[in-house]
Amino acid sequence: MRISGSTALVTGANRGLGARLVAELLRRDASTVYVAARDPESVAEDVRRDPRVRVLALDVTDPDSVTAAARACTGVDLLINNAGVLGFGDVLTGDLAVFERDLATNYLGALRVTRAWLPSLRAAGPRGAAVVNVLTLIALAPVAPMAGYCASKAAAHSMTQALRAAVRGDGIEVIGAYPGGIDTEMLAGVDADKADPAEVAARILTGVETGREIIWPDDASAGAGALYLGDPVQLETMLAA
Ligand SMILES: NC(=O)c1ccc[n+]([C@@H]2O[C@H](COP(=O)([O-])OP(=O)(O)OC[C@H]3O[C@@H](n4cnc5c(N)ncnc54)[C@H](OP(=O)(O)O)[C@@H]3O)[C@@H](O)[C@H]2O)c1
């Protein structure tokens, strides 16, 4: 779908990848960008100054917050489910309360938001509409210290596939983006290769504009994604090691 002229909503848009997605949407001439954040005050002043920006209070885990936000904004034809949390813990000893929080945000939160904005996406008309779920390469095969996070993103990956089938025929594209490590607060303190979030945001939106249903938005995920598509067990073995 074309970004130029679109009305986009980005969750978790106050910082990290979400803030870079907002900047890139504006650079590509989106007509309105809803910048959704748990704390609207945390959205940077220079972003608020852009006349195309509307700041929206939105906690994806809170049904009342989602309902109120959906009522407060109109005409969204590009929904980007970006908000996410990462808790650490392995599959045998990880704190289940942390696993629950990741599921509540990364899976149920994204699903709740998607359901709330479906009427708006369905009403987009001939321009078409799109939902982009920001997933992760490790939704497809887990890494040991992030077992709960990986499971929550695997659930969100499954939701992406189910949604794609459910809205086929409604003029809504459903896109999964599967980044590798990104240099944001989420991975602060983790020693890993990390992509520039601005570049990841640009590659996600290029994927949207070129009609991709699966986006590998950095070099690491592009390489591992090719491996996954050819031999999923080989990726599982590689990431487990
Ligand atoms: N960083 C990576 O290596 C990496 C790799 C692959 C995929 N991803 C995915 O990319 C997305 C963005 O992550 P990031 O790297 O930008 O992380 P980040 O810097 O930690 O930012 C996370 C964002 O999500 C928001 N958020 C968390 N819980 C929320 C809730 N309940 N309701 C609304 N917003 C909420 C945060 O808001 P607050 O400021 O209020 O906390 C923040 O804006 C996530 O879905 C993440 O899983 C990240």
Q: What's the β-strand tally?
A: 7
The bound ligands are:
NADP nicotinamide-adenine-dinucleotide phosphate
- Indicate the low-confidence ranges by residue numbers: none
CATH domain class name: Alpha Beta
Continuous helix count: 8
The main β sheet shows up as: 7 strands, parallel
**Rounded mean pLDDT score:** 97
Distance between the termini: 38 Å
Quick rundown:
This protein is an alpha/beta fold and 241 residues long. The chain is 45% helix and 14% strand. The protein has one domain: 3-Layer(aba) Sandwich (Rossmann fold).
What does this structure look like?
The protein has 241 residues and is α/β, with parallel strands linked by helices. Helix content is 45%, strand content 14%. A seven-stranded parallel β-sheet has the order 3-2-1-4-5-6-7, sandwiched between helices. Strand 2, helix 2 and strand 3 form a beta-alpha-beta unit. The longest helix has 27 residues, at 96-122. Bound molecules: NADP nicotinamide-adenine-dinucleotide phosphate. Residues 11-12, 14-18, 38-39, 42, 58-61, 82-85, 105, 109, 134, 136, 179, 181-182, 184-187 line the site of NADP nicotinamide-adenine-dinucleotide phosphate.
